[in-house]
Structure prediction request, 219 residues.
Amino acid sequence: MKFLFKINIKKIALISILLLLFVLYFTVCASSYVSAVSSDLEKSVFRLHVIANSNSDEDQNLKYIVRNKLIEYMNSISMNVNSKEEVIKIANDHLDDFYTIANKTIKEQGFDYEVKVNIGNYSFPTKTYGDISLPAGFYDALKVEIGEAKGQNWWCVMFPPLCFVDVSSGIVPTSSKETLKENMSDEDFSLISDNTNEIKFKFKILEMFQNVKILTAKN
Prediction:
């Protein structure tokens, strides 16, 4: 009986070690995959992040008006741009103009809020634009903070141009998809645009790791 008990203990220990090794292997592989994919995605898009003063109807409406003015201006100065690097350079060169437009719009709407406009690398939650979904992660963005910036956020992708996508239709224009695809690998593009079970599973892994990364950074 004791002999059998010892054998069972050894089997349990062996199984536990094998399971631990499998978990470690899976974690390392998943972490490497997430690191590579998230890096490619973050290098491919430039986003817009507008934060309202508060969640009041007036402040939320103001947020959208400011957003529209900024997008309209960005589109006018980057109409023929084909890379994220070009877009960021243009945005940096015209940063004072973005501030002026946002500030003027706020004043024209009868508010006296201060506004901050910066370009940097910021954390974003998972966001869907029509049939394109970008996982949570850190992305380069033009960030606009109105007043106390305690209201709901609004996000979009300035490059490739997805800001004016009608998400209610559930379809991103082919031209925007082509630009997005040209700036990333086939694997990455499939990850954000494909709805097969395998891709969904990969997306969930990426999303989980990125959310942990964001929470860790905030703490």
About this structure: Strands lie at 46-51, 115-124, 127-129, 132-134, 137-146, 153-159.
